TrEMBL record:
<dbReference type="GO" id="GO:0016747">
    <property type="term" value="F:acyltransferase activity, transferring groups other than amino-acyl groups"/>
</dbReference>
<keyword id="KW-0812">Transmembrane</keyword>
<dbReference type="InterPro" id="IPR023213">
    <property type="entry name" value="CAT-like_dom_sf"/>
</dbReference>
<keyword id="KW-1133">Transmembrane helix</keyword>
<dbReference type="InterPro" id="IPR051504">
    <property type="entry name" value="Plant_metabolite_acyltrans"/>
</dbReference>
<keyword id="KW-0012">Acyltransferase</keyword>
<dbReference type="Pfam" id="PF02458">
    <property type="entry name" value="Transferase"/>
</dbReference>
<keyword id="KW-0472">Membrane</keyword>
<feature type="transmembrane region" description="Helical">
    <location>
        <begin position="55"/>
        <end position="76"/>
    </location>
</feature>
<keyword id="KW-0808">Transferase</keyword>
<protein>
    <submittedName>
        <fullName>Anthocyanin 5-aromatic acyltransferase-like</fullName>
    </submittedName>
</protein>
Length: 531
């Protein structure tokens, strides 16, 4: 039997206050802080169970709470620190798009308005090489911003019309944070399980939190960046951007432009982008719909938060530690060969040629349903996915459109359809049908998009975002490509994010699930991949 520090596992159990979390820890777990013991052998498992149950049965709540406090102190002792040592503002010159005009207002479209109260997109990239010269990072950011000027603007409420617009002026800036960390870069860059607390310290926040409610009041900044140098080597680039300004494609467009400007210096030119939301004239009442969505999402403007959202935030703040312990994020890498194998299995029935997105989404959907062992075979399950509408509009938008152009789609199937022998084929068919239907009438029902989202929110088992076309591992600031990149703002059960993988044809899939489900999902998904 291996030498195990039982106190560590007991303290984790105590702090979780839930037996299912303890059972998950006994599977694939993180051992003493900063180390990974891997799988616990069966004899160890039984002894730890007995040890834990006997001890908690023999102590009162005072000792129980003391264990929680002790575990918190241990975590604080070993937690990697990130120290901010400089905050600067990267200013831009007036863009040719608005010349010397003192102010340019870009009202949000109805595609943007849906995201107005959501937390910012927080994207992290970890690079193993030496940190680029900070002057180069700053100057290249400044060089990139004139043609990406709306990202340096401020979200502003216009009470006369009820619109929210991005206010752009010559003195706009992006906050640039410089920091140092004594954390273990290699562990952060290689562990499949996300160290969420450490990741959060490596990405910036956008707004100044209210002492109690963390409310965001307009006007508000659109974007901030953070560069963190690790004492052990390597560096991190963190970007936070308001989701009402860009979607995933727009974010990667910015990161690629900044990295290219840093890598190639004076040789590079930032490609022109389209900021103006008036190019979306595909619905005759688009402006009216945008205002209606804003009223539904944020009825207390310029406070950019609904009353329901305020109460939710209060609740989350009171239970933040418990909430984090209940959700786990894990990254999976799917090779080209695995994808081809899944496609062959899916295409065996009906002679249909399913896309990479369709087969991977289907496999994820099926694996999660099997993980949750839903007893009612007739229960309806929902896979939600975010569809990029740029090329599906008539006329289509150009690829260089910087704003949001996304739509939620929901594929539905009964449990018995997914867990049967033909489950993969049926799941693929349901997703393909939803893609085809949504593509034929992209703006159909857009007046009720918010209502549809609310009706389906609690029923969606899986929500897939991102794209394997995002070349996340080709970003290069002049010192090589990242060893890891993750979306830090993964906060919901069943959330899945896709980007292109490290190798040609690979896909990186990051999954957020409850701690009680992640281990079984990992087994089920791996088993389905290897069938």
């Amino acid at each position: 039997m291996r030498d195990i520090d039982y106190r560590h596992y007991l303290l984790i159990w105590a702090s979780s206050r839930k037996k299912h979390a303890f059972n998950s820890i006994l599977g694939t777990c993180t051992g003493p802080v900063g180390q990974s013991p891997g799988k616990i052998e069966e004899d160890d498992r039984q002894e730890i169970h007995l040890f834990g149950h006997n001890l908690l049965a023999s102590v009162g709540w005072i000792q129980f709470l003391a264990a929680i406090v002790l575990r918190s102190l241990l975590l604080l002792k070993h937690m990697a620190s990130v120290q901010i040592h400089n905050v600067s503002h990267i200013t831009i010159s007036p863009s040719p798009a608005h010349g010397k005009d003192p102010l340019l207002l870009l009202p949000l479209s109805f595609f943007d308005a849906i995201w107005i109260t959501l937390p910012p997109i927080q994207r992290l990239l970890l690079f193993p090489g030496a940190t680029p010269d900070l002057h180069s990072l700053k100057s290249s950011l400044s060089t990139s911003l004139p043609l990406l000027y709306s990202l340096a603007g401020k979200l502003t409420y216009l009470p006369a019309t009820g619109d929210i617009a991005v206010a752009c002026s010559p003195d706009d800036h992006v906050t640039f944070i410089e920091a140092k960390s004594d954390g273990d870069f290699i562990r952060l860059a290689s562990d499949e399980i996300h160290d969420v607390d450490s990741f959060l310290r490596l990405v910036p926040e956008l707004d100044d939190p209210h002492p109690t409610l963390d409310t965001r009041v307009l006007p508000a900044p659109v974007m901030a960046v953070q560069v963190t140098k690790f004492e052990s080597g390597g560096f991190a680039v963190g970007v936070a951007v308001h989701h009402s300004m860009v979607d995933g494609r727009g974010l990667w467009q910015f990161i690629e432009a900044w990295a290219t400007a840093c890598r190639e210096a004076e040789k590079s030119e930032v490609s022109a982008v389209i900021h103006d939301r008036t190019v979306i004239r595909h619905h005759p009442r688009g402006d009216e719909i945008a205002r209606r969505i804003l009223k539904m999402m944020a009825p207390e403007l310029p406070i950019n938060l609904s009353l329901k959202h305020k109460n939710q935030i209060i609740s989350e703040k009171l239970n933040i530690e418990e909430g984090r312990s209940e959700l786990m994020r894990r990254t999976f890498t799917i090779s080209r060969d695995m994808i081809q194998s899944i496609k062959q299995r899916a295409n065996e029935v009906g002679n249909l040629q399913h896309s990479t997105f369709t087969v991977l989404s289907s496999l994820t959907w099926i694996s999660l349903i099997k993980t949750k062992t839903i007893e009612d075979a007739n229960e309806e399950t929902i896979l939600g996915f975010i569809m990029d509408c740029r090329t599906r509009l008539n006329p289509p938008l150009k690829d260089n459109y910087l704003g949001n152009c996304l739509k939620l789609c929901c594929a539905k199937a009964k449990v018995m359809e997914l867990v049967g022998n033909a489950g993969l084929s049926k799941a693929c068919t349901r997703i393909k049908e939803q893609i085809d239907e949504s593509s034929k009438d992209v703006l159909g029902g857009c007046e009720d998009w918010v209502g549809e989202i609310k009706r389906n929110a609690k029923s969606v088992n899986v929500l897939i975002a991102g794209s394997s076309s995002f070349r996340a591992y080709e970003i290069d600031f002049g010192v090589g490509c990242p060893s890891r990149t993750e979306l830090v703002s993964m906060n919901h059960e069943g959330q899945v994010v896709l980007v292109g993988g490290r190798k040609q044809g690979e896909i990186q899939m990051s999954v957020c699930l409850s701690t009680s489900h992640m281990e079984e999902f990992t087994k089920e998904f791996s088993r389905e991949l290897c069938v």
